[in-house]
Amino acid sequence: MSKKKTKIDLTKKVMKKIRKEKITMRPRVYFVAGSVLLGLGVAGAVVLAILFFNLFFFKLRMHSPFGYLLFGRPGIGPFLHIFPWLPFLLAVFGILGGSLLLKKYEISYKKSFWGLVISFLVMILVFSFLLSRSGLNRRAEKLLPLRPFYRQRFSDGDFVVGRVVQVEDGELIVEDPGGEDISVLIDENTRLPRGGGFEVGDMVRVVGEYEGPLTGSGQVVFEAKGVVKGGMPPQGPHFPEGVEERVKGRKRSF
Amino acid sequence: MLVRDKDQEFYAELVRRYEGKLLRYGIYLIGDRHGAADVVQEAFIKAFVNLKGFNARRKFSSWIYRIVHNEAINYIKKNKKTVSLESKKGLVENLSNNEDIEADFEKKEVRKKVRKCLEDLPIKYRESLVLHFLQDRSYEEISDILRMPMGTIGTRISRGKKMLKRIIK
Fold first, then answer.
1. ipTM of the assembly?
2. Which residues 113-152 in chain A show a CB within 8 A of chain B?
């Protein structure tokens, strides 16, 4: 049996297949549309990433979740609760999507791809940081469709954020942004990472656990494992009107 | 391009011009002549369908090589076991015959050694070496074909050469 290779006439085979199966070229508009969609995809990913990183930075500054880590282990739960996961994940999604789309462009291999991604990332982070400082979020959070993105719970089973409205021995009365007064009990085991000296009108964040209503007035009691000043901006929009008046004239140090 | 706008039959001329080179490239990647023929045929069909998307400012050869490369990689993924077995015995046999290879190549000595030992190289080094030494493609063209920075191509060729030397010894 001869081992000689038979010559493969590809031209004949290819042209025969094109004619037989009536294969046609895709119209130019198909490719133009593809390029336009690709460009829009990259632009959309960049805008998405900038907007959500802006929201992420804004929420980090407003709610400073890392502050809860000052309390050690009791602060981990509140940190995980307050950390702005959704904007962070959406922004990362935008970065990843944009990077994948960038790969379709010739520049992605003509230049160093990682260099390109890092530049892309730095540009997005700088823009979003500046945007988060611009006051845009203050206006945006008043718009009804955007409110869900700005909504934040300031108390849960293991933490409370609010404004001190009364100071007693071993107790702070804290008003949360919902307008509810919470009696925060402080004892010798309570961690005060930045010291005491709480005054009426201070913003505080407290970690610990609810004891349930113990007082005759039905006031909610929260046993503090740690208290620190800060947690919300002084100009935060979440407090009901009239709180400023309530705390006036009740200044006292703890 | 004339092919795009006037007569589709001119495409046959393009196929004729590139079929030999692309078939050899396919064989180097796959190690099986018939598999390579299928891959190249499919690549030509895809190129025909997408011809209006080809950027005429770029080289047609780089574009068609890129399509063959993609098709070959898909083929290798689909037929992993078969390809590795066939390539062991088939590559040298399929390419030892010089009937289709142009006589005027410059790197004759390198070419001979490369051909015998290529089958033992991982595909990422093999494809760069084949394109450079056996298909006479420049770094820039290889960069366009494999969609990698030229620096990476240089590194792969350099590493591939070192690996080949070790295999030859």
1. 0.72
2. 113
Contacts of B44 in chain A (CB under 8 A): 10, 14
Strands A181-185 and A220-229, how do they pair? parallel
Chain B residues within 8 A of A111 when measuring between CB atoms: 149
Contact A14 B94 (CB under 8 A): no
Answering whether pTM is above 0.80, one says no
- A40-67 pLDDT per residue, tens: 999 999 999 999 999 999 988 888 888 8
Across the range A197-203, mean pLDDT stands at 87
Domains and CATH numbers, chain B: 2-168 (1.20.140.160)
**Is A214's pLDDT higher than 60?**
no
Cα dist from A119 to A48, A115, A174, A226, B10, whole Å? 17, 6, 46, 41, 44
CATH superfamily of A155-247: Nucleic acid-binding proteins (2.40.50.140)
Predicted confidence at residue B63, as pLDDT, reads: 94
pLDDT at residue A3, as a whole number: 47
Residue A102 structure tokens: 């960038």
Phi and psi (nearest 5°) for A222? Answer: -125, 120
Residues of chain B contacting A5 with CB distance shorter than 8 Å: 33, 94, 97
B15 to A17: CB separation less than 8 angstroms, yes or no: no
